[in-house]
């Protein structure tokens, strides 16, 4: 059996090594090795690694990192209400992943990030009266998919929310292509302002790509992030490991690495 690593496989391997908990486990192993060799600093390294491993699965640490990264603030209800009555806007939701097939749906279904983004996009569309758009194809590492993400989302929006998508962009493989492929469609339809919906960790990187692509088209991009919390630091459970905390921390670390890499 031979192991063939194409671009998607190589990227998956790099992410597995770069995202929590792998780097922290390696740090703990190094600290343990130094401690076993009689070096006192090994104990400090091991202890630090264990503390960081704990924090890497907490919502509180994820919230602190999100705030430190400079994620835009959430839209207020007053800001949303002020957009009513205008006919030159659109709500654009970015994809966050789909399942190729789930037996309970007997078909493709949305992963949690996409489901949350779509739900907020529908909420915005209904309160502003603006049409809804979605951008997402088959990502670089989504090699198991046979159907573009946007096609699955279009079905869910129509069947489950009774709000068909006005624009469906299904060729994009990453955030840059989301911007390059979707914004011309909106501009051609006379859209001047776009409410951009994605999660708080992804928003800063998405804004960089979308504002660069929007400038030549005369479009204004308004961030509409989801996932922000104003109550994630005060509770004891916020500082305890959880599946939500682990997922959020991995997402923020991934987005930070992608930002530094210029992707």
Automatic annotation (TrEMBL):
Residues 90-257 form the DUF218 domain. It comes from the Bacteria. The chain crosses the membrane at residues 12-29, 41-57. Keywords: Membrane, Transmembrane, Transmembrane helix. InterPro entries: Cell_Envelope_Assoc, DUF218, Rossmann-like_a/b/a_fold. This is YdcF family protein. It comes from Pelomonas caseinilytica.
């Amino acid at each position: 059996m031979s192991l063939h690593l194409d671009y998607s496989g190589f990227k998956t391997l790099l992410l597995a090594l770069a995202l929590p908990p792998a780097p922290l486990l390696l740090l703990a192993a190094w600290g343990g090795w130094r401690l076993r060799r009689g070096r006192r600093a090994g104990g400090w390294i091991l202890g630090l690694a264990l503390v960081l491993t704990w924090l890497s699965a907490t919502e509180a640490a994820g919230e602190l990192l999100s705030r430190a990264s400079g994620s835009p603030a959430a839209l207020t209800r007053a800001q949303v209400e002020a957009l009513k009555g205008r006919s030159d806007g659109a709500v654009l939701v970015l994809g966050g992943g789909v399942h190729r097939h789930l037996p309970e749906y007997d078909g493709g279904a949305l992963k949690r990030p996409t489901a949350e983004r779509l739900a907020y996009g529908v909420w915005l569309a209904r309160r502003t009266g603006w049409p809804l758009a979605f951008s997402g194809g088959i990502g670089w590492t989504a090699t198991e998919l046979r159907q573009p993400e946007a096609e699955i989302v279009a079905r869910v929006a129509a069947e489950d929310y009774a709000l068909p998508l006005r624009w469906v962009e299904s060729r994009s493989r990453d955030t840059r292509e989301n911007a390059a492929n979707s914004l011309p469609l909106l501009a051609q339809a006379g859209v001047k302002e776009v409410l951009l919906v994605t999660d708080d960790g992804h928003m800063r990187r998405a804004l960089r790509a979308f504002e660069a692509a929007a400038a030549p088209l005369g479009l204004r991009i308004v961030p509409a992030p989801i996932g922000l919390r104003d109550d994630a630091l005060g509770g004891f459970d916020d500082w305890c490991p959880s599946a939500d905390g682990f997922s959020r921390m991995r997402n923020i670390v991934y987005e930070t690495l992608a930002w530094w890499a210029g992707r």
